[in-house]
Amino acid sequence: MARKKAVVAAPVDDSKINLIEAFQDFSKLKSIDRTTLMGVLEEVFRSMIRKQYGSDENFDIIVNVDKGDIQGIRERMVVEDTDLEDENKQIPLSDALVLDKGYEVGDEVAESVNFLDFGRKIVQTAKQTLTQKIRDLEKEGIVLHYKNLIGEVIVGEVYQVWRNETLVTHEDTELIMPKDEQIPKDRFRKGDTLRAVIIDVELVNNNPRVIISRASPLFLEKLFEAEVPEIYDGLITIRGVVREPGERAKVAVESYDDRIDPVGACVGMKGARIHGIVRELRNENIDVINYTTNIGLFIQRALSPAKVTSVRYDERDKTAQVFLRQDQISLAIGRGGTNIKLASMLTGFELDVFRENEDVFEEEDVDLDEFRDEIQDWIIDEFKRVGCDTARDVLRLSVDELERRTDLDRETIEEVMSVFRSEIESEYEPEQE
To answer: What mean pLDDT, rounded, does the chain reach?
Structure first.
């Protein structure tokens, strides 16, 4: 019976092709991970083997990235000289005996492959293929890295200002800020440092394209997170941000802690916190609004700085009629309609402005403080805590919702709502003669 043995020839130093060492250094420079690099190298050299021998089935590739070694091993079965059918997988006994006198038919022979014997053309093609694969990996790495940073603010350096876009360098990568993602008042020169938020990353013609923005509402949101510790810590949440870049912005905030005034926290002592944001946004006017689920009240607050008399809204059609005194209408609309446009975007309602007592009958309302003589103060304060400042604010909500949002029991809520309803209805009762 033939003996089974495998003799692996010693690695040939000439097979340590210089391109392996070159790309070992390249992998360190471009931060390509070890496993990926080894896989790429193995595939490239298997491609060389397929071109030289027609198949790589009986070949092993051993890669040592640390030393820059690449070794190919070809395994062949020893057969009688007359039985040779496939020179790639079989070796004649006479040839095997030249390698080692101890070989017999049926033994396996493992030989080192000298890649330099493949010819200049195959080696050059492999080097070009390897270069391209490394570049592709680098591009994929950039895309993956910046996709993980979408929504984050970066600080970059301007290195080229064109008519339709500004190019910024960040971590040796080119970022693009299109003209419509800039604040109209932005004026940059080469070498300037800027802050912007990453909004999109994609491969275009096999090249990474990272888009940044200073006009996005997300940029303003991230600036608030950076300037207001309570937002960063989660004590205050931003419920909505809308902007007309460089002109006006509205930010709705809500506090999860009754002891924290969300608007005051965002503005800061003497406006210290918000002033830094305003300067960053080229003196953009920012209205910080206390969010509430009371739609009518939220619409009133969204139209700040205008003082709204009353609001009628249709939740199904997402439309609202807003009534104001004559001197407040221009404030509500704002220059070029900016204020009402932003209020509409923030609330999600289409807003129509009417002069008080004109076109549509104005709803009467009563401030909750007017009821303190007949309703306990802590009950009034509980309604105000959830955003209800008037009798109609309370009556617009269901008993179930008020019970869920307040610390009041159902019976108390129903009694108070009855008092409010009676007061509102009495406004319409004709005087007795």
So the answer is: 83
- Does one domain contain both 15 and 56? yes
Within this chain, do residues 85 and 29 fall inside the same structural domain, yes or no?
yes
Tens of pLDDT, residues 363-419: 566 778 778 878 888 998 888 888 888 888 888 888 888 888 888 999 999 999 998
**Domain match, 181 and 123 both:** no
Name the nearest CA neighbour of 419 among 380, 374, 384, 379: 374
For the entire predicted model, the pTM comes to: 0.65
Spatial distance between the Cα atoms of 234 and 222, rounded to a whole number of angstroms: 13
Closest CA to 150 of 102, 185, 202, 79: 202
Same domain, yes or no: 59 and 10 = yes
Q: Which DSSP string corresponds to 262-314?
A: HHHHHH-GGGHHHHHHHHHTTS-EEEEEE--S-HHHHHHHHTTTS-EEEEEEE
Give the distance, in angstroms, between the CA of residue 145 and the centroid of all CA atoms in the same chain: 12
One-letter amino acid of 206: N
**Spatial separation of the C-alpha atoms in residues 77 and 92, rounded to whole Å:** 8
Quote the domain boundaries for residue 175. 156-213
If asked whether residues 24 and 116 sit together in one domain, one would say yes
Start-to-end C-alpha separation, the chain? 130
